[in-house]
Each structure stands twice: as C-alpha cells, then as structure tokens.
Design goal:
Homodimer. This is Iron-sulfur cluster carrier protein. This protein is of the alpha/beta class. It has 2 domains: about 90 residues, GMP Synthetase, Chain A, domain 3 (2-Layer Sandwich); about 240 residues, 3-Layer(aba) Sandwich (Rossmann fold), CATH 3.40.50.300. Helices cover about 30% and strands about 20% of the residues. The strands form 3 sheets. Strands 5, 6, 9, 10, 11, 12, 13, 14 and 15 form a 9-stranded mixed sheet that branches. α7 packs across α8. It is elongated and about 70 Å long. The relative contact order is 0.13. It binds adenosine-5'-triphosphate (ATP). The site of adenosine-5'-triphosphate has 20 residues, from α4, β13, β15 and α11.
C-alpha cells in the first residue's frame, strides 16, 4: 500500500499548533514531498522563537506520520526565515536520529548586497564539473593535501550536498564538527581544514531544501565556520549547473573555478556547459584538468588511453583557457580515497601529478 499526499495532509491537519489552528490551516507546511513511502517536508515558522515552540508539533507529526500504513520514512525540518541580530542560527529543530551539532544548517539566506569575502580567507576556488563521476571530489581532496604539503594554509568545503564524499575520502567518517550555537568548529585531516554539509545533516535531509534554503546553508558554511587564516579555500561543488553553484558565486567572492573533466566527448560537452555557467556568473575559469587521463598497466608498464587522451587539453586550447594538468587513471588513487588517506599524502608518480598541479596554481598566484 502506498501513501498519498492527500492522506499526509489529512493527518497533518489533525495536529494543533500554538496560536490556534493546525499545521495545514496555519500554512506552516512547505515543500511536501511524498514518494515511494518517504514523506519529507519543511515546517516553516515565522521566527526562531516560534520554531522552538513548534518542536513538540514536529515530534507529533513525526510520530503520527510514521504510524500510517505505507509510510517507511519521515523527514521533517523546522526552519525560521530570519535570524535574530548577531547572526544566530535560524533553523531550530530536526526530527529523530543522532544528536546534531547545536547549530542547525539550512535556512533562508540573510540579505546581502553582493558577493562578500570570507573573513580570513585569501582566495576561494570552486572545483566544478559538468558531469558526475569524473573525479571532481577525488581531485579536490588530493589537491588540497598537495597544497598543504607545499606549506599553504588550505581549507576544503564539501558543498556536494547530494553526494558529500569528502568525509570518507579524508578519513573523517563518523566525526562530527562541534558548535557553540553561533560558530562551527571545522575538522582537520592531512593538514587541511575541512567542513562538509554532509557532516551537518542527516542522510537525505537536503533533498527537501529549496534554492533559498541551500543559499542560506552555504552562507552559514562560509561565514559561521571557524576557517581561521587560509591562503585558499577549495569548494567541492555538486556536478552540473544548479543552485549551489549559483548561490556560491552570488554570496562569496570566488577567485576562480577549476573545471575537471575526463577526456570523453560527452564529459567535455558537459564541461563546456559548466564553463558557460561560470562565465554568466562572472566567475573566472582558471583552467581545465583532465582526470583519468592515461592508464599505466602496473604489470607491464604499458600506457593505454582508455577514455582517449588529450581531449581536455584540446578543449582548453579551443576555449582559450589554461590547461592545468592531467591525473592518470589509477587503482591506488581510488583505493586511497576509499580508505581515507588521499594518495597525495604519500609519494610516487600519482602523488606527483597532484604536486605538479599544486605548484602550477601556486606559481600562478591562484593558491
Ligand atoms: N584518476 C582516477 N583513477 C581511478 N579512480 C578514480 C580517479 N578519479 C576518480 N576515481 C574514482 O571514481 C569515482 C568517482 O570519483 P569522484 O567521487 O571523485 O567523482 P565526482 O566527480 O566527485 O563525482 P560526484 O560529483 O558525482 O560525486 C570514485 O570511486 C573515485 O575513487
């Protein structure tokens, strides 16, 4: 038996709210999504105090919906649209699961005149790709480690909310950042200061976020994390050209974007779209990197080009953009990422390809 949206609304209409009426008649339910037994929605309160008063209401909704036949999962996030002065957090509560950090992430953005610098951070570099799975996150973690080993003060913000992988790649799985309710203390791994939206959310939570909520969350990750003094903050973006890219470039002074692509034509076509988007957002594209470039057989040393080779360099030349370097296809690179110690933390030819990329960025004043 599947649960319908109407049935969910009917149940929510039974739940009284402070000040009179019920969740539905008081118009507090937003972004309701009912799909394959999963119910997700946002309770939007007028302000932080009302959001706190709605905590028992959220719990009641969680309890009642979970008891309905056909419901397998219920995710509710209670938010308030405006922060009290002084930048205190705006989202008040979430339902179920392990204890979240005391600062809730995900809110409406604070009005801002234009892109702003992040205090203490000299440069922000966005790492993007047109297509998923081309190795953008792998490149970001290894580049961050390579830059740190060169003595740069490096931060990494994992903004890939739909598939945050940096905690795993950097060996931080299971660790939670702490917060005093105002500011978040980031984590540290392999010489890099790390923060991931994935560390602040329960699995699947972000899917209920709309554009403005994402923008607010990103603003918090930039301005309410104790990044300290950094030479460069790398931002691992989700693939494609969506809300996160838009929000980042609208809210933060991004020095430039690095585009990662594999050499295949399809990846390159998508990479071109990503470049177009950064152009429209007036964010300079610093160059292209080719990942999974060559494959060197570990047994016989034969060099093969599984996805073609040189396609990204040719594309960079055609677009009159710098070609920043190439990273080989290498099983150890993948295994190192899965094990939580990026290959760039060690030595050897693959680590060297990241060193070269880091040196290139430092020499060009980009990191
Ligand atoms: N050069 C490489 N050699 C071997 N494996 C690689 C290489 N680059 C990435 N991988 C592997 O490919 C998979 C996808 O990489 P990754 O998660 O970095 O991609 P992504 O572009 O960030 O994807 P998404 O944005 O969809 O999460 C991972 O398992 C990673 O270990």
């Amino acid at each position: 038996m599947t649960i319908s949206r109407e049935r969910v609304l009917q149940e929510l209409a039974q739940i009284a709210v402070p000040g009179g009426g019920n969740l539905v008649s008081a118009d507090l339910v937003r972004a309701l999504n009912v799909e394959s037994g999963a119910v997700r929605f946002v309770i939007e309160a007028a302000d932080a105090a009302s959001a706190r008063a709605l905590v028992p209401v959220e719990a009641e909704a969680q309890r009642r919906l979970s008891a309905l036949p056909g419901v397998e999962k219920v995710q509710i996030v209670t938010t308030a649209p405006t922060a009290p002065r002084g930048g205190a957090p705006q989202v008040a509560a979430r339902s179920g699961g392990e204890a979240p950090p005391s600062l809730k992430i995900g809110r409406h953005p604070t009005p801002q005149a234009g892109p702003a610098p992040v205090s203490g951070v000299a440069r922000i570099l966005a790492v993007g790709s047109g297509k998923g799975g081309v190795g953008k996150s792998t490149l970001t973690s290894n580049l961050a480690v390579a830059l740190a080993r060169k003595g740069r003060r490096v931060g990494l913000l994992d903004a890939d909310i739909y598939g945050p992988s940096q905690p795993r790649m950097l060996g931080l799985t299971g660790q939670r950042p702490t917060s005093d309710g105002q500011m978040i203390e980031p984590l540290h791994a392999h010489g890099v200061t790390v923060m991931s939206l994935g560390l602040m959310m329960k699995e699947g939570e972000a899917v209920v976020w709309r554009g403005p909520m994402l923008m607010g969350a990103l603003q918090q990750m930039l301005n309410q994390v104790k990044w300290g003094e950094l030479d460069v903050l790398l931002v691992d973006l989700p693939p494609g050209t969506g809300d996160v890219q838009l929000s980042l470039c609208q809210k933060a002074q991004v020095s430039g974007a690095i585009i990662v692509s594999t050499p295949q034509d399809v990846a390159l076509i998508d990479a071109r779209r990503a470049i177009d988007m950064f152009d429209k957002l007036k964010t300079p594209v610093l160059g292209l990197v080719e990942n999974m470039s060559t494959y060197i057989c570990p047994n016989c040393g034969h060099e093969a080009h599984l996805f073609g080779h040189g396609g990204v360099a040719a594309e960079a030349a055609a677009l009159d953009l710098p070609f920043l370097g190439e990273i080989p296809l290498n099983l150890d690179l993948r295994l190192a990422g899965d094990a939580g110690t990026p290959i760039a933390a060690g030595d050897g030819p693959v680590a060297q390809s990241f060193v070269r990329l880091a040196e290139r960025l430092i020499a060009g004043g980009m990191a």
